[in-house]
Design goal:
Distance between the termini: 51 Å
Structural class: alpha/beta
Strand content: 15-25%
Number of helices: 6
Shape: globular
Radius of gyration: 18 Å
Length: about 230
């Protein structure tokens, strides 16, 4: 049985200077990482990911969100059926772009993983970031979960960004940022992620939209303004 962590179980060095909101985000990610290690999930869908946006504030249509969920499940199932437990693959789909991370032990399996993803219905593009070598350890994956939480917390603290516009995935310390954002937002989010301790590199896997397209989405996509006190 997997024991779920509590706040006191988390390293104090990672939360000493954080706000309560940051502590909650790190705990939520740690809980998710623990659940992903249970026998119920033989192949990871989403990986060390934080930031799945709510339907009401996601910049994808509700139909596309459902499609992305279906793509993740179908891809994960097919990889599991064909390659079994000899690979460790994380599958994330955002606006029909599939991000593959994790590890395979050889180039043949890495290529097979990409072919499987490309053959799934409704998939647009595939970004294959799978590494070749030994499969990552549980401690490495737990570290990725913690980094993902800290990156997401830093994006939350940035008042000039809409946090739900981004989907953060971390693998082996590498941060992948997905979403439909403007160049301004992409640059800002990249800078923030690079400043988080433990991040090795930041990969922009974002779909860039214009400021006009963003404005056309309405006020729901604008940063929340603090409420004035009477």
């Amino acid at each position: 049985m997997t024991l779920l962590p509590t706040l006191k179980d988390l390293p104090m060095t990672s939360v000493t200077r954080s706000s309560r909101r940051t502590r909650r985000l790190i705990l939520a990610a740690a809980l998710g990482g623990a659940l992903l290690q249970t026998a119920c999930v033989p192949l990871i869908v989403g990986g060390a990911a934080v930031g799945s946006a709510m339907v009401a504030t996601d910049r994808r249509t509700s139909g596309t969100q459902l499609e992305d969920q279906g793509i993740e499940l179908k891809t994960a199932n097919r990889i599991r059926e064909q390659l079994g437990d000899r690979v460790h693959i994380n599958v994330n789909s955002y606006n029909r772009m599939v991000l593959l991370t994790g590890e395979t032990r050889n180039d043949e399996d890495r290529a097979a993983v990409e072919r499987i993803a490309q053959g799934v219905e409704n998939v647009g593009n595939v970004l294959n970031e799978v590494g070749v070598g030994m499969l990552s350890s549980l401690s490495s994956r737990a570290n990725d979960v913690a980094i993902a939480a800290k990156v997401k917390a830093s994006l939350v603290d940035a008042k000039d960004l809409i946090t739900n516009a981004f989907y953060v995935v971390v693998e082996r310390g590498n941060v992948y940022i997905m979403g439909r954002v403007t160049e301004r937002e992409a640059t800002r989010a990249t800078e923030i992620a690079r400043g988080v301790r433990g991040v090795q590199k930041v990969v922009r896997a974002m779909e860039i939209i214009s400021e006009a397209e963003l404005a056309a989405m309405g006020q729901a996509q604008q940063p929340a303004k603090p409420k004035s006190t009477p």
